[in-house]
Amino acid sequence: MPRRYGISDSRLKRIAHVEIACDAVARFNSMARLYRHEICGGLFGQAYEQCIVVSSIHIVENRTQNVNEFLLSIDDLAARSAGSRSDRRLVGIIHSHPSGGTTPSILDVQTMTRSPYIWAITDPFLDEPNLQIRCFKGSGLGAMEVPCSIR
Ligand SMILES: [Zn+2]
Hints:
Blueprint: H1 9-14, E1 17-20, H2 22-32, E2 40-47, E3 51-60, H3 74-81, E4 89-96, H4 106-112, E5 118-122, E6 133-139, E7 142-146, E8 148-150
Parallel strand pairs: 1-3, 1-8, 4-5
Antiparallel strand pairs: 2-3, 2-4, 5-6, 6-7
The chain binds zinc ion.
């Protein structure tokens, strides 16, 4: 059965760079700073041959009460992309680490290896905007960092 969402495994393997709109990251992190728990959402944009360009971020409900976890519904995200332009596809998942650091947790890595998306993790309290976000993708070996730039 064809997968309804995400990026194909073969394409995800080739993705070597992520570019994210600066204002989208700034808005996500300013919201993240207001909460003690993790916030989460989707990265929307376009997947090119080796690069993903993220033009917008949509925050959706974090469905867990656990402070250091997040749980989102792909259906919530898909609803955000329904009927939108072809350059606004769901290409990734983003969540904040309010307790600091952008290193994926063990649970993050486990989920990444099962999900065909780019994963962005933010530490909203870091001063330098370029350090506030890192991107990853699942690989056979776990999580692999994908260089990202804020534009
Ligand atoms: Zn995490």
